[in-house]
Each structure stands twice: as structure tokens, then as C-alpha cells.
Amino acid sequence: MGYKSLEECVLDLERHGHLIRIREEVDPYLEMAAIQMRVFDAQGPALYFERIKGTEFPAVSNLFGTLERSKFMFRDSLDHLKKLVDVKMNPAAVLKSPFQYIGSSMTALGALPWKRKRDAPILYGKTQISKLPPIVNWPMDGGAFVTMPQVYTEDITKPGIMNANLGMYRIQLNGNEYVQDKEIGLHYQLHRGIGVHQSKANAIGQPLKVSIFIGGPPAHPLAAVMPLPEGLSEMIFAGALGNRRFRYFYDEEGFCISADADFVITGTVYPNDNKPEGPFGDHIGYYSLTHPFPLMKVHNVYHKKNPIWSFTVVGRPPQEDTSFGALIHEITGAAIPQEINGLHAVHAVDPAGVHPLLFAIGSERYTPYQQVDRPQEILTIANQILGKNQLSLAKYLFITAHEDNPRLDIHDISKFMEHVLARIDLTRDIHFQTNTTIDTLDYSGDGLNAGSKVVFAAAGSVKRKLANEIPAGFDLPRPFQKAKMAIPGVVVIDGASFTNYDEEQRVIEEWCKEVAHLNWEGLPMIILADDAGFTADTVNNFVWVTFTRSNPAYDIYGVGSFTKFKHWGCNGPVIIDARTKPHHAPALIKDESVERKVDQLGKKGGSLYGII
Predict the structure, then answer these.
(1) In whole angstroms, what is the distance from residue 42 CA to residue 353 CA?
(2) Cα–Cα distance between 76 and 2 in angstroms, integer?
(3) In a 3-state reduction of DSSP, which class is residue 209?
(4) CA distance 462 to 175
(5) Which of 66, 181, 410, 417 sits at 20 to 30 Å (Cα–Cα) from 601?
(6) Predicted confidence band at 333 (pLDDT cuts at 50, 70, 90)?
(7) What is the CA angle 583-587-593, rounded to 5?
(8) Which residues, in sequence order, are bridge partners of residue 274?
(9) Helix axes 234-242, 78-86, angle to 10 degrees
């Protein structure tokens, strides 16, 4: 049976050794986040904070911190849910084939939302925004944020829960120009369901009603982050995953209320009513900066008896949202490959910040009557990937042919890139999309949501043996001289700090001419970085620096580069300038004084003794 509440989940995890209590009073300003990150890094338990400075409410975090714990929470429904995903979450299809999906029929019935009377636990009391846990994760954050919200909206032209959207979009509770207790900030990115709903409300000049659920059974926040097709209610998914129908009602003002939530904030968003939101330390590993985003006028803040505030911390991966991604993959399996003909696998590379870098494996079946030694079908697949929902936010896509190595592991970053780099023809197989959209949180582009994309496509036989070390006597001219190997075939070189694009383009192109005579055999890729030692130290550092700090159309160069019939290529190595640019957002840096406070909790007698 599924959990009826977050409290029931917390107690169950505690009984089975998956959760500990932090009994010391903790500061919601930086300290709680620092504790969460330290315990996550140690692959430790979920955390229940009993005493939080400045609020009467306790909080829980790291619920989804390990895949093992997530599987434990959904141990009664996970297998059945995978079968439902196979039929695209259509309960009727399952019921039509009960023998094929034996055992899943009850799961399908349990997926249907249940409208109930206004007698739910959530109506126990009301509070104010200023009395909620004011958790601030990073030193430069613009205020306190809700980081595990379930933001509910309905289609104003087709009202009702079956056409609703439940998404996880951060909520700024205070700071900036927000009027305390009356206004909060609503931030959402491209390709989010709430955007469709707000657009329709704006078109007819009506305010959008928004309900923000915090807490509730763990199936609810997971449903809010699931990549479901537009038009499929996340509430159905929550019911199936949690083995408990999503219970809801409408309050006297017409706002949808999750009956099982711990807190519900209701409010309205009026057309073109924005205020500055941010900064916020985000999941790519940098701050998202201050920009105008929708303003939500608060109506009510409901809470149940003994509510628990649920939160998480995002930052440079891996963090708890990494485990979210692992669980989503566990549930959906091959769902996305099934939607794109010929696609075998796709992987958003978490250490690179997810959206900046995608790997994909596709089929090459266009000419079965002859041996294929160049990308064909995988280019078509690449275009489909870059037009598919949130996958379209990708900036770099490396794609290769399944037939070249059916056992290639798409999750092994180094091996996958080696496979591509050994086969790619740099004169032919690099394809750009310029002046397009990228992730809102990615500041490597030339404006908010604006940048470029590139596809590295490789198919056919091995074209080069990748070097494992820098050749002896490899003497590089200024300003890029200090070289380190990152992975086979990739050398990282550092040099002077970036100044501006006009100057750097001239400098790099001149440098390319000076090194053209060197033997680059086995080194098809060069990364320019601020710190070659740091970048090349680990594979995770390499992909994080390279793909979060570069805009393909602006930052890709090549030794012996050329443009022919609108196609760009290079005869020597391809160069990615991954140095920090003046317009980039600052990277996230922890507060050392707070880290020392967390150290004390790990000493004998502290709540984290033996964990960190």
C-alpha cells in the first residue's frame, strides 16, 4: 500500500534505517543546505530537521538521495508502474488487456484522481509565507526558495484535473521587490506545461490560478518532475506510483487543493505582471541571475496538523536531483527511444549539467545493401532529438551508430566520447544550429534562452587511433601552452583569461596557424580552459567545464578550419574554447565558515557522527 502522507513515509524510512533526525537547532541560511549536500555526498540517509531557527515547522530532505531508498519507498508499485508506462500511462488500455497486464489493473484503477469533500487534513490551519522555513542554499541567492514544490495549474479553456499540469518550478518566497507575505516569485523555463496554461490565460486577459503543494506522499513530487507528454495529467502518474489515488478538492476561491499535501500556497498570476526573481544557485553549477519572472499574488497558505516542509538542494552535479533522474530512467526505461524511430538510447549527461550535453545511439539502416561509413540516418534522428520536448534544450549532441558497437555503454562518458572521436570525420560530421534557444539556466549563450547547438555525428569504421598521452617534444606557442590529457584523444590547454570575442577570435585563429605543422594524429579535440589541471583531473570536471562554459557557434574553432557551401569543418583538431567569459554567471562556491559548522555535527555526539 502507498503512503498516505509525508509523515507516514518519514516514519517508515526511520524504522528501516533510511532516515535520521538532526536534533540540533540548525540555521536555514546556508547551514541546512550544507548538511544536505554533505550527507548526499556520503550517500547517507534522508534527513529530518527537528529544530529550525526562525520557524516552528520541521523539514525533511534527501528523501530521494539514493536510488536504493527511492526503490524502497515505491517497492509496492514500481514494477506495475513500468507496465503502465509501456502503454503510455493509459489505464483503459491496461484494463482492456487484463491478462497481459495481470497485477497492473488495480494500479491503473488507483491512478484515477479522487475528488473529495472539503474535510481534508490540509485545512487544519493557515499560516503566512514569513513563517515558513526560509531556506537559503547558496551565499548569493536572492532570498529563500521553495525547492521541492509541486506547482499546479489548469488549462483555462479546458478546466479540470485531467487537463492540469503539475511541475516543479522554483518559488522565491522573499527578497528583491516582493511584498512580504503578499507576493512570491514563480520561475519556470522553456518547454514547461505551465507556460502553455499561462499563455492561454493571458490571451483572454484572465489571471492564472496557481496552487503550490509542498510535501505530501513522495509520489507527488516525483510526478511533478516526470517528463510526461503534454496533456497527460501528472496526478494520474502520482496515483499509480503511490498506490493511492490523488485526493483533491477546490477551496472556496476555486483553487485546486491537494488533500494530502503538508502545505498549499494559493495565488494568482496576472498577465504581464512580473518582478525581478533570483539569483539562485542552480543545477548546472552556477547561479541563475536576476531576471523578470511571473509574480504570484498570495491568497492563502494552508497546512495540515504537524506538517513537514520538504526541500532539496541543487548545485553542480551530482546532487539529489541526480538520483531523481536515475529513478525516472528506472521507471521510463526505453520510453523516449520508442517515440523516435531508430533511436536506441539517449542520455543527458548529469556531470555536464544535464541539458548542455546529450549522448545518443541510433540505427543506420538507410542503405542496407552497402557498408555505411558516414552518418546518414543518425542525422535524421539527431534532428528529431533536438526537436523533442526538453531534449530540445540540449546544446551539444554526440550521436553514433548502434551497428558500430552494439555493446557501447552510453553512460560511460569517456568510452562513449572515445568511440565518437575515433570515428568522426571533422571535415564533414560537425553540424551547427545557430541563433536558437538553449536552457534558461545556461548563460554561455548570447542572451537569456538564446545560443546555439552542435551535433557531432560519427558512424562507420575507426578513422584514427586516439592518443593516451601528449607526444614528446610537443612545444606549444603562446598564449596556450600548458597541456594536460583529459581522456584519450582530448587535450586540455590553458592560457590567458578571455577578454572579448573580437580579440579572442583573432588570437585563436592565429594560434591555429602556428600549430598547424604539429603532429595532431590521435588528438582530434582540444579544450581551451582557465585551468588545464582542474579540467583534466577527472572526467566529470572535463565535461562540466567544457560543455557549460562554451557556446558552440561562438566557441568552436579548428586547426585548418574552412567553410564550404555553408558547411563548417576542420582538417586538424576541433577546438572548444571553454574559458570563463565575462557574461557567464558565477560558479557556486560554498561558505567555508558554514562548512566548519557542519563538521561539528559529524563529531562524536553530533547527529551526523559516523555519516560524514
Answers:
(1) 20
(2) 7
(3) strand
(4) 56
(5) 66
(6) low
(7) 140
(8) 294
(9) 140
**Three-class secondary structure of residue 388 per DSSP:** coil
- The sign of the torsion formed by the CA atoms of 419, 420, 421, 426 equals positive
pLDDT of residue 89: 46
- For the chain, what percent of residues have pLDDT higher than 70? 93
Give the cell for residue 521: 594524429
Mean pLDDT (whole number) for 250-262: 96
The span from the CA of 242 to the CA of 175, in Å, is: 36
The residue behind cell 531556506 is: 135
Beta carbons of 460 and 372 less than 8 angstroms apart: yes
Which pLDDT score, from 0 to 100, does residue 227 have?
77
pLDDT digits (tens, 9 = 90+) for 580-612: 999 999 999 999 999 999 999 999 999 999 999
Q: How far apart are CA 428 and CA 177, in angstroms?
A: 51
d(CA 481, CA 514): 12
Phi/psi at 390 (nearest 5 deg)?
A: -75, -15
**Mean pLDDT calculated for residue range 285-304:** 96
pTM: 0.91
Could you give the CA distance from residue 469 to residue 477 in angstroms, rounded to a whole number?
Answer: 19
256: left (phi over 0), alpha (psi -120 to 50) or beta: beta
